[in-house]
Recover the amino acids of this structure.
């Protein structure tokens, strides 16, 4: 089928390529002309603007928005909605807050435009392995664009999970779980690394844990790849950004009175990575010095 794709970054560009490889016609737009040219070289149909892209789609149209969550997504969706007609379908595949999807769906319903929220996971490996898709929205609209979802996802990796907002809600919690899993791996390897007297090989340990171990996972496979290049690993700074979805997950847990200490702690640990000379830890060190004489001055 023919669909518009807005946003040709690391995710959107690879998603477009995967769909082209599976026989779909993709009209592609990105503010970066080089990104559009790259997709055109892969067989995509270039668009010079959002308006140009919509004009190249036949009704009923389907447009997938894959841009950073927040004001950019909101502005892009609003602009597209003004260009689209009754019966068209607008899909947000970014990491938007699920409440945005609910509001957009309600706003566009009166105009006859369906809004679907497609939680998308797979990162840069999605081109090869496929993207796990968690889709929320109207059932009939989902069915119309289901060929797109099925070709983007690996076998059994796509589901219509519920009404508007459900897709992004499920993806939000998915990312919260991801925070906790990554933090557990990080802490575990830090403990192993601290046992210097045992001369442990981190890459070796991560490698054998992939086979038969109860902690094996795709994240562990990625740890093996990262640890294989020791020089590259040592050059990585210990700074970890949070996407916002970890914060939203913790807030939802609070609002819904659900205990989530692991996800909450993993979020807080990301904040510590941003302050190597933490003022709070300086206070802690000073207090320890005051009551116990634990001097830590350099």
């Amino acid at each position: 089928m023919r669909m518009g794709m807005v946003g040709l970054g690391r995710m959107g560009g690879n998603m477009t390529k995967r769909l082209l490889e599976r026989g779909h016609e993709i009209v592609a737009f990105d503010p970066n002309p080089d990104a559009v040219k790259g997709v055109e070289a892969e067989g995509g149909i270039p668009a010079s603007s959002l308006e140009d892209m919509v004009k190249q789609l036949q009704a009923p149209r389907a447009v997938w928005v894959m841009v950073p969550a927040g004001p950019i997504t909101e502005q892009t969706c609003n602009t597209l909605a003004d260009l689209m007609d009754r019966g068209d379908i607008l899909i947000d595949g970014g990491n938007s807050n699920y409440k945005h999807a609910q509001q957009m769906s309600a706003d566009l319903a009166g105009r006859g435009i369906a809004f679907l929220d497609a939680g998308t996971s797979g990162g840069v490996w999605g081109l090869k392995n496929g993207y796990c898709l968690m889709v929320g929205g109207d059932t009939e609209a989902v069915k119309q664009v289901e060929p797109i979802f099925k070709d983007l996802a690996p076998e059994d990796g796509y589901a219509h999970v519920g009404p508007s907002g459900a897709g992004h809600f499920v993806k939000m919690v998915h990312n919260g779980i991801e925070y906790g899993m990554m933090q557990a791996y990080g802490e575990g390897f830090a403990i192993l690394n601290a046992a210097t007297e045992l001369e442990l090989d981190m890459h070796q340990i991560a490698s054998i844990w992939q086979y038969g171990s109860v902690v094996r996972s795709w994240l562990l496979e990625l740890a093996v790849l990262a640890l294989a290049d020791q020089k590259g690993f040592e050059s990585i700074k210990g700074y970890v950004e949070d996407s916002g979805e970890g914060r939203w997950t913790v807030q939802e847990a609070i609002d819904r009175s659900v205990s989530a200490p692991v996800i909450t702690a993993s979020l807080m640990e990301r904040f510590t990575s941003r302050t190597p000379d933490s003022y709070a830890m300086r206070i802690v060190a000073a207090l320890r010095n005051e009551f116990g004489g634990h001097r830590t001055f350099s």
Observations:
- The beta strands are 2-6, 25-29, 45-46, 62-65, 89-92, 114-121, 132-136, 158-162.
- The longest helix spans residues 166-194.
- The chain has a mean pLDDT of 94.
